UniProtKB/TrEMBL annotation:
Superkingdom in the source lineage: Eukaryota
Keywords from the UniProt entry: Signalosome
Name this polypeptide is given: PCI domain-containing protein
GO cellular component, one term: COP9 signalosome
Entry-linked SMART domains: PINT (SM00088)
Domain PCI as annotated: residue spans: 1-159
Ubl conjugation recorded as keyword: no
Similarity comment: Belongs to the CSN7/EIF3M family. CSN7 subfamily.
Native organism: Aquilegia coerulea
Protein backbone atom coordinates (compact mmCIF):
# COMPACT_ATOMS: atom_id res chain seq x y z
CA UNK A 1 0.00 0.00 0.00
CA UNK A 2 1.47 3.37 -0.98
CA UNK A 3 1.70 6.29 1.42
CA UNK A 4 -1.09 8.30 -0.26
CA UNK A 5 -3.60 5.47 0.00
CA UNK A 6 -2.66 4.77 3.60
CA UNK A 7 -3.03 8.47 4.42
CA UNK A 8 -6.48 8.56 2.86
CA UNK A 9 -7.64 5.52 4.81
CA UNK A 10 -6.31 6.87 8.11
CA UNK A 11 -7.89 10.27 7.55
CA UNK A 12 -11.23 8.64 6.76
CA UNK A 13 -10.99 6.54 9.92
CA UNK A 14 -10.18 9.43 12.25
CA UNK A 15 -12.80 11.70 10.66
CA UNK A 16 -15.50 9.09 11.29
CA UNK A 17 -14.31 8.60 14.85
CA UNK A 18 -14.26 12.36 15.48
CA UNK A 19 -17.87 12.57 14.33
CA UNK A 20 -19.01 10.28 17.16
CA UNK A 21 -16.72 11.45 20.00
CA UNK A 22 -17.00 14.54 22.18
CA UNK A 23 -15.22 16.20 25.07
CA UNK A 24 -12.35 14.34 26.69
CA UNK A 25 -13.00 11.28 24.55
CA UNK A 26 -12.45 13.43 21.46
CA UNK A 27 -9.30 14.84 23.07
CA UNK A 28 -7.92 11.33 23.50
CA UNK A 29 -8.74 10.61 19.86
CA UNK A 30 -6.75 13.70 18.82
CA UNK A 31 -3.79 12.45 20.84
CA UNK A 32 -4.09 9.10 19.07
CA UNK A 33 -4.22 10.76 15.65
CA UNK A 34 -1.25 13.03 16.29
CA UNK A 35 0.74 10.06 17.60
CA UNK A 36 0.07 7.79 14.63
CA UNK A 37 3.29 7.02 12.79
CA UNK A 38 1.71 7.10 9.32
CA UNK A 39 -0.62 10.11 9.57
CA UNK A 40 0.71 13.50 8.45
CA UNK A 41 -2.44 15.38 7.40
CA UNK A 42 -4.97 16.78 9.84
CA UNK A 43 -7.05 19.44 8.08
CA UNK A 44 -9.97 17.05 7.45
CA UNK A 45 -10.12 16.20 11.14
CA UNK A 46 -9.94 19.88 12.02
CA UNK A 47 -13.03 20.56 9.94
CA UNK A 48 -15.24 18.02 11.76
CA UNK A 49 -17.98 19.96 13.63
CA UNK A 50 -17.34 18.12 16.92
CA UNK A 51 -13.69 19.17 16.77
CA UNK A 52 -14.54 22.79 15.93
CA UNK A 53 -16.92 22.86 18.90
CA UNK A 54 -14.04 22.21 21.29
CA UNK A 55 -13.22 25.92 20.96
CA UNK A 56 -13.95 27.74 24.22
CA UNK A 57 -14.52 24.56 26.22
CA UNK A 58 -12.38 23.03 28.95
CA UNK A 59 -10.95 20.69 26.31
CA UNK A 60 -9.99 23.39 23.81
CA UNK A 61 -6.30 22.61 24.35
CA UNK A 62 -6.80 19.52 22.21
CA UNK A 63 -8.07 21.69 19.39
CA UNK A 64 -4.95 23.84 19.78
CA UNK A 65 -2.86 20.67 19.78
CA UNK A 66 -4.44 19.48 16.54
CA UNK A 67 -3.87 22.89 14.94
CA UNK A 68 -0.21 22.66 15.98
CA UNK A 69 0.19 19.34 14.20
CA UNK A 70 -1.65 20.62 11.15
CA UNK A 71 0.35 23.82 10.73
CA UNK A 72 3.05 24.21 13.38
CA UNK A 73 6.58 23.03 14.14
CA UNK A 74 8.64 21.77 17.04
CA UNK A 75 9.81 25.34 17.67
CA UNK A 76 6.17 26.47 17.85
CA UNK A 77 5.48 23.85 20.48
CA UNK A 78 8.46 24.88 22.57
CA UNK A 79 7.27 28.48 22.46
CA UNK A 80 3.74 27.52 23.57
CA UNK A 81 4.27 24.35 25.62
CA UNK A 82 2.76 25.98 28.73
CA UNK A 83 -0.62 26.25 26.96
CA UNK A 84 -0.58 22.80 25.38
CA UNK A 85 -0.78 19.23 26.72
CA UNK A 86 2.56 17.45 27.25
CA UNK A 87 3.61 15.43 24.22
CA UNK A 88 4.27 11.70 24.28
CA UNK A 89 7.46 10.49 22.48
CA UNK A 90 5.55 9.52 19.33
CA UNK A 91 4.10 13.03 19.12
CA UNK A 92 7.53 14.60 19.57
CA UNK A 93 8.88 12.48 16.72
CA UNK A 94 5.87 13.33 14.53
CA UNK A 95 6.20 17.07 15.15
CA UNK A 96 9.89 16.99 14.29
CA UNK A 97 9.11 15.13 11.06
CA UNK A 98 6.53 17.76 10.21
CA UNK A 99 9.08 20.48 10.99
CA UNK A 100 11.38 19.07 8.30
CA UNK A 101 8.50 19.21 5.82
CA UNK A 102 7.86 22.85 6.72
CA UNK A 103 11.51 23.74 6.19
CA UNK A 104 11.50 21.92 2.85
CA UNK A 105 8.55 24.03 1.63
CA UNK A 106 10.80 27.05 1.09
CA UNK A 107 14.35 25.67 0.88
CA UNK A 108 15.65 22.65 -1.02
CA UNK A 109 19.06 22.81 0.63
CA UNK A 110 18.77 22.55 4.41
CA UNK A 111 22.00 23.26 6.36
CA UNK A 112 22.76 20.81 9.14
CA UNK A 113 23.21 23.63 11.65
CA UNK A 114 19.70 24.95 10.96
CA UNK A 115 18.20 21.49 11.21
CA UNK A 116 19.96 20.67 14.46
CA UNK A 117 18.77 23.93 15.99
CA UNK A 118 15.20 23.48 14.75
CA UNK A 119 14.97 19.84 15.84
CA UNK A 120 16.96 20.05 19.09
CA UNK A 121 19.51 17.55 17.79
CA UNK A 122 22.94 17.70 19.38
CA UNK A 123 25.21 16.19 16.71
CA UNK A 124 25.43 15.36 13.01
CA UNK A 125 25.22 11.59 13.51
CA UNK A 126 21.94 11.89 15.38
CA UNK A 127 20.59 14.29 12.74
CA UNK A 128 21.51 12.02 9.82
CA UNK A 129 20.00 8.98 11.58
CA UNK A 130 16.78 10.95 12.05
CA UNK A 131 16.68 12.08 8.41
CA UNK A 132 17.35 8.57 7.13
CA UNK A 133 15.33 6.41 9.52
CA UNK A 134 12.45 8.70 10.44
CA UNK A 135 12.03 10.82 7.33
CA UNK A 136 13.32 9.11 4.20
CA UNK A 137 12.38 5.57 5.23
CA UNK A 138 8.96 6.90 6.25
CA UNK A 139 8.52 8.13 2.67
CA UNK A 140 7.82 11.76 3.54
CA UNK A 141 11.06 13.11 2.03
CA UNK A 142 13.74 12.05 -0.43
CA UNK A 143 17.11 13.64 -0.72
CA UNK A 144 20.87 13.48 -0.38
CA UNK A 145 22.97 13.88 2.73
CA UNK A 146 26.01 15.98 1.88
CA UNK A 147 28.48 15.54 4.74
CA UNK A 148 31.11 17.66 3.03
CA UNK A 149 28.84 20.69 2.72
CA UNK A 150 26.96 19.78 5.90
CA UNK A 151 23.50 19.98 4.36
CA UNK A 152 20.50 17.93 3.29
CA UNK A 153 19.54 18.37 -0.37
CA UNK A 154 15.79 17.86 -0.67
CA UNK A 155 14.58 16.14 -3.84
CA UNK A 156 11.00 15.52 -2.69
CA UNK A 157 8.95 16.46 0.37
CA UNK A 158 5.34 15.60 1.14
CA UNK A 159 3.03 18.59 1.43
CA UNK A 160 1.58 19.74 4.73
CA UNK A 161 -1.91 21.04 5.47
CA UNK A 162 -2.42 24.55 4.15
CA UNK A 163 -2.34 27.29 6.76
CA UNK A 164 -5.22 29.79 6.50
CA UNK A 165 -2.86 32.58 5.44
CA UNK A 166 -1.53 30.38 2.61
CA UNK A 167 -4.92 29.97 0.98
CA UNK A 168 -4.82 33.26 -0.95
CA UNK A 169 -1.37 32.52 -2.32
CA UNK A 170 -2.39 29.00 -3.29
CA UNK A 171 -5.47 30.30 -5.12
CA UNK A 172 -3.31 32.84 -6.95
CA UNK A 173 -0.83 30.12 -7.88
CA UNK A 174 -3.61 27.89 -9.20
CA UNK A 175 -5.13 30.78 -11.18
CA UNK A 176 -1.73 31.54 -12.70
CA UNK A 177 -1.27 27.87 -13.57
CA UNK A 178 -4.76 27.77 -15.08
CA UNK A 179 -4.10 30.85 -17.22
CA UNK A 180 -0.77 29.43 -18.35
CA UNK A 181 -2.46 26.13 -19.21
CA UNK A 182 -5.17 27.95 -21.17
CA UNK A 183 -2.56 29.91 -23.13
CA UNK A 184 -0.59 26.75 -23.81
CA UNK A 185 -3.72 24.93 -24.94
CA UNK A 186 -4.62 27.83 -27.25
CA UNK A 187 -1.10 27.79 -28.69
CA UNK A 188 -1.27 24.02 -29.24
CA UNK A 189 -4.67 24.36 -30.93
CA UNK A 190 -3.31 27.08 -33.23
CA UNK A 191 -0.35 24.89 -34.14
CA UNK A 192 -2.67 21.96 -34.84
CA UNK A 193 -4.82 24.23 -37.01
CA UNK A 194 -1.71 25.46 -38.85
CA UNK A 195 -0.51 21.89 -39.31
CA UNK A 196 -3.91 20.85 -40.67
CA UNK A 197 -3.86 23.80 -43.10
CA UNK A 198 -0.35 22.95 -44.26
CA UNK A 199 -1.39 19.32 -44.66
CA UNK A 200 -4.34 20.33 -46.85
CA UNK A 201 -2.11 22.63 -48.92
CA UNK A 202 0.42 19.83 -49.28
CA UNK A 203 -2.32 17.44 -50.44
CA UNK A 204 -3.59 20.02 -52.91
CA UNK A 205 -0.09 20.69 -54.24
CA UNK A 206 0.59 16.98 -54.52
CA UNK A 207 -2.69 16.51 -56.41
CA UNK A 208 -1.77 19.33 -58.78
CA UNK A 209 1.66 17.80 -59.39
CA UNK A 210 0.15 14.36 -59.98
CA UNK A 211 -2.40 15.86 -62.40
CA UNK A 212 0.39 17.64 -64.32
CA UNK A 213 2.40 14.43 -64.43
CA UNK A 214 -0.65 12.59 -65.76
CA UNK A 215 -1.20 15.31 -68.37
CA UNK A 216 2.43 15.09 -69.45
CA UNK A 217 2.22 11.31 -69.64
CA UNK A 218 -0.94 11.53 -71.72
CA UNK A 219 0.66 14.16 -73.97
CA UNK A 220 3.79 12.06 -74.44
CA UNK A 221 1.70 8.97 -75.12
CA UNK A 222 -0.38 10.86 -77.69
CA UNK A 223 2.74 12.20 -79.42
CA UNK A 224 4.28 8.76 -79.45
CA UNK A 225 1.17 7.23 -81.00
CA UNK A 226 1.00 10.04 -83.56
CA UNK A 227 4.66 9.54 -84.47
CA UNK A 228 4.23 5.79 -84.82
CA UNK A 229 1.15 6.35 -86.94
CA UNK A 230 3.02 8.69 -89.31
CA UNK A 231 5.92 6.27 -89.55
CA UNK A 232 3.51 3.45 -90.39
CA UNK A 233 1.80 5.54 -93.04
CA UNK A 234 5.17 6.47 -94.59
CA UNK A 235 6.25 2.85 -94.62
CA UNK A 236 3.00 1.81 -96.30
CA UNK A 237 3.43 4.59 -98.90
CA UNK A 238 6.98 3.46 -99.69
CA UNK A 239 5.85 -0.15 -99.99
CA UNK A 240 3.03 0.75 -102.37
CA UNK A 241 5.41 2.89 -104.44
CA UNK A 242 7.85 0.01 -104.73
CA UNK A 243 5.09 -2.35 -105.78
CA UNK A 244 3.92 -0.02 -108.53
CA UNK A 245 7.47 0.31 -109.88
CA UNK A 246 7.86 -3.46 -109.98
CA UNK A 247 4.63 -3.88 -111.80
CA UNK A 248 5.65 -1.35 -114.41
Amino acid sequence: MDIEQKQAELIEYFVKQAEIHKGLSLGNLIVEATSHSSLFGFSEILSVPNVVQLQGTEHSVYLDLLRLFAHGTWSDYKSNSGRLPPLVPDQVLKLKQLSVLTLAETDKVLPYDNLMQELDVSNVRELEDFLINDCMYAGIVRGKLDQLRRCFEVQFAAGRDLRPEQLGGMIQTLETWLNTSDNLLHSIQEKIKWADTMSELDKKHRKEVEDKVDDIKKSLTHKKLHTVSRQTMTFEGMRRSSTLNLEE
